[in-house]
Structure formats: structure tokens, C-alpha cells
Design a protein that fits this description.
Blueprint lengths: L21 E2 L23 H18 L11 E11 L8 H15 L22 E5 L12 E5 L22 E6 L6 E5 L13 E4 L13 H4 L1 H9 L71 H11 L6 H4 L2 H7 L14 E3 L3 E2 L4 E6 L11 E5 L3 E2 L2 E2 L5 E4 L3 E11 L2 E13 L6 E2 L2 E3 L18 E3 L5 E4 L9 E4 L9 E5 L3 E3 L6 E9 L9 E7 L7 E7 H4 L18 E8 L4 E11 L6 E9 L14 E4 L8 E5 L7 E6 L4 E6 L7 E5 L11 E8 L6 E7 L1
Parallel strand pairs: 2-3, 2-4, 2-5, 5-7, 9-16, 17-23
Antiparallel strand pairs: 1-6, 6-7, 8-10, 10-14, 11-13, 11-15, 12-14, 15-16, 18-29, 19-22, 20-21, 21-29, 22-28, 23-28, 24-27, 24-29, 25-26, 25-28, 30-31, 31-34, 32-33, 32-35, 35-36
């Protein structure tokens, strides 16, 4: 399978910023407020320029509120683009959920929300119609027809922050960019920059989790979830939290500068989605007032209003050129983004997914149309080109197909409507593995071969990499044995990136139970919060389904206690042997092993000396059930291959390194007894160097036995 390459490195930035966060724990029905200041300072490149822009905007706001322009009644139209970041799961939300989120946003900013009549008397006279109308863009930055919704496939959706903005961002002085993701990296529900960030940075806008976006679909539908977007867009138009810029719940908020709005009473904020309408957390004001718990910029569970003072502050921001806010609703920009006219029909953008992209011959899989940018009507048609499949073409929207021969196959979809056609071709999309693999367990891989990964056309006999571009690479920077190892270049990829290295198809028919995998590992964390994860999976149905057999992350994965910000290159003492109990593979004619690494903002990882056995070998003596053993092991010149109670007369012994290169062979004499031994170093043509070797014994008239010999 060929994934969209992600080559941009995640920026780790310093600076002082003000932005908001709404948190959501995985087990909670909706987000809880948290994290604002935890994230402060991480995502602004030029902190000094940002501070200057913020100061300039505050000075403008102070004079603007007294001007006649501040009392304008013009409705300002704001072009919006919604970027859905997904990996073809439920996070690939529907257009309808986007429309619902925009409906709620517009109702809230126009004071048209059905619950506005629930405002308590203390604030009923100052509820505001802000006068902003948000419309999905009808033209993209190149002038092409759009429905204002983009869809980008990326695993970063599960660990998102500004990293997803590197993948797609429309000019932030022309569009309000909203990125909808599955999870935010610091467990937040959303965040938005206040005006002041650079237009050129492409990061200005709102990022929000889909569970707090709109009121239908994946959203929980609760008030707090539905109003998260309203809250974040309030920040985008220069509103602070009602308690100010401090952390929520601080008594200092009662004497601080507050939220720069005169008609919102001082408060320390509302926690736990509370809704105590009589709440009064700051009693030092004259006259004393209850908290405006129902304000969108609090963290209550009953938010339903902006105040007139907040309206004036947002209108000031909209009239300032800081971060392009004044340009975004200009007449020329409304024409540029197409929101000045009624929406028309756009040409669809082709997209699709498959129920499986790795299968055995004869296995059915279903293709699902995921095309977007236009509403499906009776003018839509689908045309699938399916080389090697049965059928080879289809005009169904979601066809079911199968492949009868092993190979790597492309798929092309052309989707059309009354406005035109869109085509998408995915090369090397479906891998059909052989039912009869030529490789039998045991299998070793030390990455000593000059080409890795090998050509995908030979994937049935070679390892292959599936994931981010240049993720797993062969390196001679460090190795457990030999000269090369496999390196995951962690520092070159954003957190959340997932990449795998997959074995060739292996025949375990002669395997004894249980089977095991051993490999050498070296890994360092970058900091105490690094959450890199390594997993090992096995598949017995050609990769259609996988079962996890190993998982380690963070400190448990690390082979050194050192926290390293610079690139990690392990020394000899920083390698560790890992053992994976795979389970019963006896009689399994085809199997795949997959090593999967999930980037958690840590350092580089190295793998070497992968040994996939058809049976368990003891760490020290590798004793087999039929009394064939190497003692001592590890051992060098003193290591002896011994046997007891078996007949090896005429048997051949082969010793190879982990690249498969023969370094020695011997035929046991015809009159050998049923018990005996032979020095392994004496079989080798040259003195064996430290490393891992495979000793293969081929008895006459019997299946071969394989042992691993470690030379320290």
C-alpha cells in the first residue's frame, strides 16, 4: 500500500502565545477545560513579532471602541474552509456534520440560537448579535470550485496539533481555516490563535476534535461539545476567557486585568462543565455581580451568549489588519472565495478506500467511494479500472472484487457529475500474497544485503516498508552484529507518524509450537514525555487481519536511560535482545510478520538480527527437543555443536552469517556415534567475528534443524 508521504518535519517552536484549549479525555463523553498554558509557547516562530502585533491590536481596540465604526450594523461575511484530517475511519466525518457545525456557529454569532431566551435577567439586556456570518468557501485559492470542505488522509489526525497544518492550509488572510481531527497531541478539544500570528506561517485558525464539532455525527451533541467551535472562533476574533489569561480557578483573576471587556464580571471561571447560575466567585467588584456563567468564553455546560462588550472587541479585531482580519471580509475577498454568490455545483474530487489492501488470492475485498467536493445526485457516475481483478472494470459506486493471482495492483476511480470528472489512481495499492511461499521458517534478517527494502515487485520474497517516506532505512551507523542495521529516522517525522516494515511471506508448515521471534533493539527517548511505540504483529491471512504479539513504548522501550535531543546512535552497550512469543503456527502455510513504529516525539530506533524461528530456542543453550544443542552459547572458539541420542552420520552442517553468506560447512563422518560434538569455529573458513550465525544441520533422510550461534 502506498500512503501519502509526509516529509515535513514537525516544528518545535519557542515563543509566548495566547491561545485557548478545551480538553477531552478519552473516556469522557465530552471535553473538560484544561491545557491553555501547558501549550503556551510551543507554536509561534517569531515571539517578538507576535508580541508587537498583539500590543498594536490592543492599542487599536482601545481607540476603536469609541469610534462611530464600532457601532456599525453591517453583516460581515467570513469565508470558511474546513479541513477534515482522517485515516478513512469515523474521523472522516460527513459533510452534514460540517454543515451542522456551521449552523450552530452562525446561530450563536447572530443571537439566533434557540436557547437565547434562557439567559438569566442579570445579563438579558446585554446579549449580542455580533453580526458575523460564516460561509463555506465556494472557490479555492486557485479559483477552482469547492464546497469549502477538504479531506486529507493522514495518521497525524490521531496526534494532531500544528503538524497537520503543514499538510494543508489555505491563505489565512482569506479564509478562516478549521482543521477537524480525531485527537490533539496534548489531549485538548480545540485551540485557536488570537490575532497576531504571521499570515505567512499558515497556522492561523482553529483546530478542533470531531467529537466537539457540531451536534450530530461523531459529536456527543452536548452543549459544551456543540459550542466548542463558537468558543474557539471567539478567540480567533481576540476574545480571552472570561476570567482572563490566567489558568482557570485562580483567585488572582478577581484582581487581575480580566478579559479586557467591561460588561463581563470578574470570575475565576467555571469548571467541570458546571452551570450554577447563582455562582459569584469574585465579590470584590462594585457593584457586585454574579458570574456570567452562560458566556461562550467560560467553560460551563450552559453557554449561550456573547455580551455587547465582547461584540465590540470582536468588531475591533475584524477591522484591524493584524493577521489579515480586515481583509477576510472585504468585498474583493468575498469574490475571491466565491461566497458572494449562491453556491453552485462543483466537479467531484475522486477518493476511495478498500476494506483490505493486503489479501490472499481469491479473497474478496470491497472498494468504497469516498469522493467529495459535491453532493451526490442522479448525474453522478463511477468508473473503476481494476487491472488483474475480477471484474477488471466496474460502474458500481462500491464494488466487491477479488484477485486470483499474486502481485501488486493499481486501482483507478473516475467519478463524474454534470460539471465534470475527477480521477484518482493509486499505484501499488493492493498486495496479493502467494498461497505457497517459497521461504520456510526459520528466517533471519540482518540487513547486510546491499538493497533494502528490495523491489516491491518481489514482495513475496523480500521485506518491504509501508509508511512515511524515508522512515525505515538501512544504515551502517550502528549495528548489533555485522555492519548494518535497520534505522527508524524518528527525528525526521512528526509525532503520530506510523510506519511498518513487513516480512516476506513465510511458510510455517513444519514449525513446532510455540514459535518465537527474537531481534536486537536500540532506542533512546528525547525527553521524559516521549511516547514512541514499537509493536510486532503476525498475520496468517496474507495481511488482511493482524494480531499483536508485542508492544513496548516510552521508558519500557528505551535501551538507555539517557534523554537525548540530538540524533541517537547506539554504542555496543545500548543494544538489547527482545523475544516475541508468536504462538502456535504449526501447519500455517503462509504468515507475515510486521514491525510497526508509532512516532511519539522521541529519538531514533534501530533493529538488527531479526530471527523468526519455527520453534522456541532457549536464550543460553538453544536446546531442541531432539537433543541437538550448542554449548556454550554465546561462545566463540569454545562453542561446540553437540548431540545426544540421535544419529547424525553423514549429516551436513552449514554455517552462514545473517545475510545468508556461507562461512563454513562440514559433513559428519559416516561412523559417528549417537552422541558427540564438533567445534563450530573449526568448521568456519576464517575465525568468526562477533555476531550472530545460523547453524543448519541436514541429517540424512530427515528434515533440517537450525540453531542460532552467538559469537560474543
Amino acid at each position: 500500500m502506498k500512503l501519502i508521504p509526509i516529509t515535513q518535519a514537525r516544528h518545535i517552536l519557542a515563543g509566548i502565545i495566547l491561545f485557548s484549549v478545551l480538553c477531552k479525555g478519552y473516556s469522557q463523553p465530552e471535553a473538560l477545560p484544561c491545557g491553555t498554558y501547558k501549550a503556551t509557547g510551543h507554536f509561534i516562530k517569531d515571539a517578538q513579532q507576535y508580541r508587537q502585533n498583539r500590543a498594536q491590536l490592543e492599542a487599536f481596540t482601545a481607540t476603536f471602541k469609541d469610534s462611530s465604526v464600532s457601532r456599525e450594523t453591517e453583516i460581515k461575511i467570513i469565508p470558511v474552509v474546513v479541513h477534515i484530517m482522517h485515516n478513512y475511519g469515523t474521523e472522516n466525518i460527513s459533510d452534514e456534520q460540517v454543515y451542522d457545525a456551521l449552523r450552530i456557529l452562525n446561530e450563536d454569532f447572530r443571537r439566533l440560537n434557540p436557547d437565547i431566551n434562557e439567559v438569566i435577567p442579570a445579563f438579558a439586556g446585554i446579549t449580542a448579535d455580533v453580526g458575523f456570518e460564516f460561509r463555506l468557501a465556494r472557490k479555492d485559492p486557485q479559483g477552482k470550485c469547492t464546497n469549502g470542505i477538504t479531506r486529507t488522509q493522514t495518521v497525524l489526525t490521531f496526534n494532531a496539533d500544528d503538524n497537520v497544518k503543514e499538510l494543508i492550509s489555505w491563505p489565512t488572510n482569506r479564509y478562516l481555516n478549521i482543521w477537524v481531527v480525531q485527537n490533539i497531541s496534548f489531549n485538548a478539544g480545540g485551540y485557536s490563535y488570537l490575532p497576531g500570528v504571521s499570515i505567512a506561517s499558515g497556522v492561523d485558525g482553529v483546530i478542533i476534535i470531531n467529537r466537539q464539532f457540531g451536534g450530530i455525527g461523531t459529536s456527543s451533541g452536548a452543549n459544551f461539545a456543540k459550542r466548542t467551535l463558537t468558543h474557539e472562533v471567539g478567540h480567533w476574533f481576540n476574545l480571552s476567557h472570561v476570567w482572563g489569561d490566567e489558568d482557570i480557578g485562580q483567585t488572582a483573576s478577581c484582581s487581575g486585568q480580566g478579559d479586557f471587556v467591561g460588561d463581563t464580571p470578574k470570575t475565576i471561571g467555571t469548571t467541570n462543565n458546571g452551570c450554577n447560575l447563582a455562582q459569584n466567585t469574585c465579590t470584590n467588584e462594585i457593584p457586585d455581580k454574579v458570574d456570567n456563567v452562560q458566556n461562550y468564553m467560560d467553560y460551563s455546560g450552559c453557554a449561550l451568549m456573547f455580551t455587547l462588550g465582547q461584540k465590540n472587541r470582536m468588531i475591533a479585531a475584524a477591522n484591524s489588519y493584524i493577521s489579515g482580519r480586515r481583509n477576510i471580509w472585504s468585498d474583493s475577498n468575498l469574490v475571491f472565495t466565491g461566497v458572494n454568490n449562491s453556491p453552485g455545483v462543483c466537479t467531484p474530487i475522486a477518493d476511495f478506500k478498500a476494506s483490505a489492501t493486503q489479501v490472499c488470492p481469491g479473497t474478496s475485498l470491497t472498494l468504497s467511494d469516498k469522493s467529495y467536493n459535491a453532493t451526490i445526485d442522479n448525474t453522478w457516475t463511477w468508473s473503476w479500472s481494476l487491472p488483474g481483478a475480477n471484474p477488471a472494470t466496474s460502474d458500481a459506486q462500491n464494488p466487491t472484487i477479488k484477485y486470483n493471482s499474486p502481485g501488486v495492483y493499481p486501482i483507478t476511480l473516475t467519478v463524474s457529475n454534470s460539471k465534470g470528472s475527477g480521477t484518482l489512481t493509486r499505484t501499488e495499492f493492493v498486495y496479493v500474497y502467494t498461497d505457497n511461499p517459497s521461504i520456510k521458517a526459520p528466517l533471519t534478517e540482518g540487513f547486510e544485503s546491499g538493497s533494502f527494502p528490495a523491489s516491491t515487485s518481489n514482495f513475496n520474497t523480500n521485506w518491504r516498508v509501508d509508511g512515511a517516506e524515508s522512515s525505515f532505512v538501512r544504515t551502517n551507523a550502528s549495528s548489533s552484529s555485522g555492519n548494518y542495521s535497520l534505522k527508524y529516522q524518528n527525528l525526521d517525522h512528526p509525532a503520530g507518524t506510523v510506519s511498518s516494515v513487513i516480512s516476506p511471506s513465510i511458510n510455517f508448515s513444519d514449525a513446532k509450537s510455540p514459535a518465537t521471534i527474537t531481534f536486537r533493539l536500540a532506542y533512546a527517548r528525547k525527553n521524559a514525555e516521549s511516547t514512541d511505540r514499537l509493536e510486532v504483529f503476525i498475520s496468517t491471512d496474507c495481511g488482511k487481519t493482524w494480531q499483536r504479539r508485542y508492544q513496548k513504548s516510552g521508558a519500557n522501550l528505551a535501551t538507555t536511560n539517557s534523554l537525548l535531543k540530538n540524533a541517537f546512535t547506539p554504542n555496543a552497550d545500548q543494544w538489547r535482545t527482545e523475544t516475541v512469543q508468536v504462538g502456535n503456527l504449526a501447519g500455517v502455510s503462509k504468515g507475515l510478520i510486521r514491525f510497526t513504529f508509532t512516532d511519539g516525539d522521541g529519538n531514533n530506533l534501530y533493529i538488527d538480527d531479526i530471527n523468526i524461528f519455527g520453534h522456541v530456542l532457549g536464550q543460553e543453550d538453544f536446546t531442541l527437543k531432539d537433543r541437538l544443542q550448542i554449548v556454550p552459547n554465546p561462545g566463540a572458539e569454545e562453542a561446540v555443536l553437540g548431540w545426544d541420542g540421535i544419529m547424525l552420520s553423514g549429516a551436513e552442517i552449514f554455517i552462514t552469517d545473517i545475510s545468508g553468506r556461507l562461512i563454513g560447512s562440514r559433513v559428519i563422518t559416516a561412523n559417528a556415534s549417537t552422541s558427540g560434538g564438533i567445534q563450530l569455529a573449526g568448521i568456519c573458513s576464517n575465525k568468526p567475528l562477533p555476531g550472530v550465525y545460523i547453524v543448519t544441520i541436514q541429517p540424512l533422510g530427515s528434515s533440517q534443524k537450525t540453531l542460532r550461534w552467538i559469537v560474543p
